[in-house]
Amino acid sequence: MGVFDDLVGQERAAQTLRRAAAAAAEVLAGGSGAGMTHAWLFTGPPGSGREEAARAFAAALFCADGGCGHCDMCHQVMVGSHPDLETVRPQGLSYGIKDTRQLILRAAGAPTLGRWRVVLFEDADRATEGASNALLKAIEEPPPRTVWLLCAPSPDDMMITIRSRCRVVTLVTPPVAAVAHVLATRENVPPDMAAFAARAAQGHLDRARRLALDADARGRRESVLSIPASLTGVGECVAAAERLVKTAEEEAAAVTSVLDEAETAELRKVYGEGSTGKGLNKGLVRGGAGALKELEERQKSRATRTKRDVIDAALLDLVTFYRDVLAVQFGAQGVELATEDRRADLEKVARSSTPEDNLRRIDAIMLCRRRLAANVSPQMAVEAMTLSLRSPRLLP
Ligand SMILES: [Zn+2]
């Protein structure tokens, strides 16, 4: 089973990448290698597996067998230890020019193992303008064996000058049935749970996996989806907003604290902290304090980003709920709704509102997402939203 077989519902993209990997092998053999190019942009909605597709392609470039999935090269790529693969995963809200310049220098080196040097840039849309310009120059004049794999939600998220120099690989939201099948066959999830998780996650594979395997994740979704039917008074709106933000904070803290502790411990070890300090090089101690401070800032930025991402995911669950209410109001027959498990709430909200109300509610949620992206305090933005959800007609 090859590396591309792991991509769920992406037959077209896999076809393109298989051909390109074959062409890349031709280049190495001295041929023309039409079909291979040195800059790629992987786009697709969250959960479509952009990074997974890029990683599979990297494996196919390194593997003598076009991505067999079981040789040393393929394995090293999958666990992230291949010396010629550099993975960039921006931790904060943006990726700056200083980091980008260092990355470009590293990318310019000759491949250690003689095939390619590959940079896999996750969330490349987080590159700042300065960083993007530096990146553009690197892509315009690439060293002969360097391949850039950029990942972003859509081509529009990248500067047009970068986009036009990349071959775009478009990934699609995998069908619900394909996601359910993967959960059942690869994760041993019982069929009923697999079907529920795939439907609730609307083709977002990671999220479906979390919902299927993690009872806490299911509990958080329950808590978010119980909001619409609970907004009976102003007090309830305020309480619901508080609950949503607090749940997001807890989830984000659970994700980031594990990472933070490991990184901090690692850094302290590097700078020799924990020893008596006697005879410790003073410059090293000062360097350690600086590095620690830098790490703390990075961690803070990551925590903010994680919290924002978690709230955003909750808001998208709410959008799905109101879309399903609209489907109920328009009498959609035979469609399995993403929030089918909240059927009673869907019908209750559908009975007590007009389709226009629910369109306005969706607008209110989108407004809240924009406010959060613009750094409005989560508590304020979410509270304004729950109040609008209760009285959609008061919206301008
Ligand atoms: Zn292989």
Describe the structure.
This protein is α/β, with parallel strands linked by helices. It has three domains: 3-170, P-loop containing nucleotide triphosphate hydrolases (Rossmann fold, 3-Layer(aba) Sandwich), CATH 3.40.50; 176-213; 234-394, no CATH class. Helix content is 60%, strand content 6%. The protein contains 16 helices and five strands. The protein is globular. It starts with 10 loop residues before the first helix and ends in a 6-residue tail after the last helix. Mean pLDDT is 88; it is low at 275-280. The structure holds zinc ion (ZN). Residues 238-265 form a coiled coil.
Helix and strand topology:
Blueprint: H1 11-28, E1 39-43, H2 50-62, H3 72-79, E2 85-88, H4 97-107, E3 117-121, H5 129-140, E4 146-152, H6 160-163, E5 167-170, H7 176-186, H8 191-201, H9 205-213, H10 215-225, H11 227-230, H12 234-270, H13 282-329, H14 343-351, H15 355-373, H16 378-390
Parallel strand pairs: 1-4, 1-5, 2-3, 3-4
Bound molecules: zinc ion (ZN).
Residues 63, 65, 67-68, 71, 73-74 line the site of zinc ion (ZN).
Keywords, separated by commas or semicolons:
binds zinc ion, 5 strands, 396 residues, Rossmann fold, 5-stranded parallel beta sheet, alpha/beta
Any low-confidence stretches, pLDDT <50, length ≥5?
275-280
The amount of helix comes to 55-70%
Q: Give average pLDDT, whole number.
A: 88
- The CATH topology of the largest domain comes to Rossmann fold
Q: Say what oligomer this is.
A: single chain
> How does the helix and strand content classify structurally?
alpha/beta
The level 1 CATH classification of the largest domain is Alpha Beta
Global geometry: globular
Succession of helices and strands: HEHHEHEHEHEHHHHHHHHHH
- What small molecules does the structure contain? zinc ion
CATH homologous superfamily placement of the largest domain: P-loop containing nucleotide triphosphate hydrolases
Radius of gyration: 24 Å
Strand order of the largest sheet: 2-3-4-1-5
Instruction: Report the sheet with the most strands, covering strand number, pairing sense and barrel closure.
Output: 5 strands, parallel
Report the portion of residues in β strands: 5-15%
Number of helices, where a helix is a run of at least 4 consecutive DSSP H or I residues: 16
CATH architecture group name of the largest domain: 3-Layer(aba) Sandwich
Distance between the termini: 56 Å
- In total, the number of domains comes to 3
